[in-house]
Amino acid sequence: MPSSGSTTSILREVQEGKRFRCVEYAIVINGCLNSLAIPSRVLGLKTADVETRESGAGYVVAEAFDRDRGLGILTETRTFRKAERFFGWIAKYLYHFDARLDLGMPPQSPGSVMLLPVAVPEPTVFQRRYPITDMAYKRSVTAFYAEPR
Predict the structure, then answer these.
(1) Which range has the worst mean pLDDT, 31-45, 93-107, 130-144?
(2) Per-residue model confidence (pLDDT) at position 48
(3) Which single residue of 44, 66, 93, 100 has CA 20 to 30 Å from 128?
(4) What count of other Cβ atoms lies within 10 Å of the Cβ of residue 81?
């Protein structure tokens, strides 16, 4: 865990030799993209069994908006030799997506929005013990992926 959630403090601690989780790498990538005027956000990816799995129910990436194509592009922090291996690994996390409404903050914080599959109950807990609160649930891809201003 970093001493602070800011991009600069995470980078400073990396220079000191500290290692971090996917969420901290996503925060840094998001900060770098935003500093280049590329709209992006930190995006939480969650498994279908997000409520009952004890660990490994989520993964965090940065997602950039490509104005030319009008879509989000995931920026991944892991290195995979083959695309098939990456897609096989990440597939289990592509069930629930969540993001802060304040785009500079990590997901699963107050003021977040979650995209759910149609007819799937709204999850209320993450990994059996962390309540999911102050979440706006959406089932529309269009609502979740509105063009950034």
Answers:
(1) 93-107
(2) 97
(3) 100
(4) 7
- What's the pLDDT at 76? 65
The secondary structure element, H or E, covering residue 114 is strand 112-115
Does 110 map to a domain?
Answer: yes
If one counts the domains in the chain, the total is 1
Looking at the domain assignment, is residue 48 inside a domain? yes
Query: Is residue 149 in a domain?
Result: no
**Rounded distance, CA 50 to CA 97, Å?**
11
| 52-107: pLDDT as tens digits | 999 999 999 999 887 777 666 666 666 667 778 888 889 999 999 999 877 555 55
Residue 53 class from Cβ within 10 Å (0-12 exposed, 13-18 middle, 19+ buried)? middle
DSSP-assigned letter for residue 15: H
- Residues β-bridged to residue 96: 46
Tokens 């059996």, located at residue: 128
Both structure tokens of 126: 């993450």
Let me know how long the chain is.
Answer: 149
Q: Which domain holds residue 83?
A: 21-144
At position 14, the amino acid (one-letter code) is: V
- The count of other CB atoms within 10 Å of the CB of residue 66 is 11
